[in-house]
């Protein structure tokens, strides 16, 4: 464990709180981002349309411009959302109507272009479209409060495979060139399909329509030198009545806990992300329970940890317990793609380094070829026999109820005693770890660095309002920095050059060069 950042010093450490108006972006980087320190920010980033996001029903849909887009909505399982959840295609007005009618079993979370039901449902003898489908390998999809690593744009060697003529003509392709801004690592023009993909991956549905809005900041000044990875919206609904909390002592391995927690909140499950997060609650309340990357060995991750970098980013080994995994650098870049980038852009590499990088690329290509020849379907291998997605390596096996023993005590002291014995047997040392707990409300933000484990409990708002049970948040995700330099937070230009293509796509969209 090479983590060198901030660690909580008390059994329950208070998360520092600062005023947005009292700090510059450079100070914020030096005092929190560089130190890998979570912090609550009182205030919301300038130009953020908080009032528009709080609109009800039709006005909210109209603001987003998302009336007709298909969304992938999770259905509650085992008392919570996230890993193992089924996903259903639904339009935003339909989801809001369910919430309005008191149906609290749905959650809108991270959307992925590749989450196509025809790809993900098991084959069937009839033509009926199943009502639910699993979701692809990622890090956000497994939880209502996390980010996808595999979906990080890593496209230097893949985009624009149809190469144009030197004069910029389209040649044989029906994928027209929209910009001649070249990336040195691929010398490929920006084509229409890539431009659309980059916009939709950066500003996810149902927010995509805001990519052209001057009212919605895509790159907040507070984290201006970090490279944005994704912006998304999460939305769910909670009953105000506390659910019954029980244990099943006949199940010695899990106590039948699942994702259930005492009280009336809904749990994300304990997990970590592979990107830095600026979290903005808009409706309802959120409670974060947070553990440092330095404690990862005691947090019972699904995956076998390969390495914890100095900035807290966690890399995993391949293994039978996990879905397919590719090693990542400390800035989140896939090791293989970073090697390709270095080979293509650095003419001054020493022979030994060049040979090492070529070996990395060749091994990956050999693995991909072997998989193709074997007929293996790595996508389907990520699901169990019931076609429910397996837990990702970044999830903890620790039931979230064990994070809230004080609330269990308030309900039933005898149950707490049994849970403590269960925790000490199955997760030794966990109950003794230092943690941070923060209650977050609209008008505040939370900065959470990559690699910090967290469980998020969501609560609704005013029960007397039409959408009073609703909880809603917007997330800005950033590639984790791997230097302490505010002006140059990444050790090389890998992500900077990649984001130049995304920025060009956003510019062209706003100029009317294409429509989504």
Characterization of this structure:
The chain is built from eleven helices and 18 strands. The chain has helices at 25-33, 50-53, 57-64, 92-100, 117-120, 192-202, 335-345, 351-374, 405-411, 413-426, 494-510; strands at 12-14, 17-19, 39-42, 70-75, 86-91, 106-108, 177-179, 190-191, 228-237, 266-267, 276-283, 285-291, 305-308, 314-316, 435-440, 444-448, 453-459, 470-478. The two termini are 44 Å apart. It has one domain: Jelly Rolls (Sandwich), CATH 2.60.120.650. Strands 2-3-16-11-18-9-6-4-5 form a nine-stranded mixed beta sheet, with helices on one face. The chain is globular. The model is unreliable at 115-144 and 148-172 (pLDDT under 50). The protein is an alpha+beta fold. Helix content is 23%, strand content 18%. It comes from Babjeviella inositovora NRRL Y-12698.
Q: Could you describe the largest sheet, including whether it forms a barrel?
A: 9 strands, mixed
What is the helix/strand order?
EEHEHHEEHEHEEHEEEEEEHHHHEEEEH
Structural class: alpha+beta
**Annotated CATH homologous superfamily:** Cupin
Strand content: 15-25%
Please state the average pLDDT score: 82
Radius of gyration: 23 Å
Indicate the CATH class: Mainly Beta
CATH topology description:
Jelly Rolls
Level of helix content? 10-25%
Task: List how many beta strands DSSP finds.
Answer: 18
* CATH architectural name: Sandwich
* Shape, principal axes of CA atoms: globular
Return the domain count.
1
Q: Trace the largest sheet across and list its strands.
A: 2-3-16-11-18-9-6-4-5
Number of helices: 11
Instruction: Note poorly predicted spans.
Output: 115-144, 148-172
Give the N-to-C terminal Cα separation.
44 Å
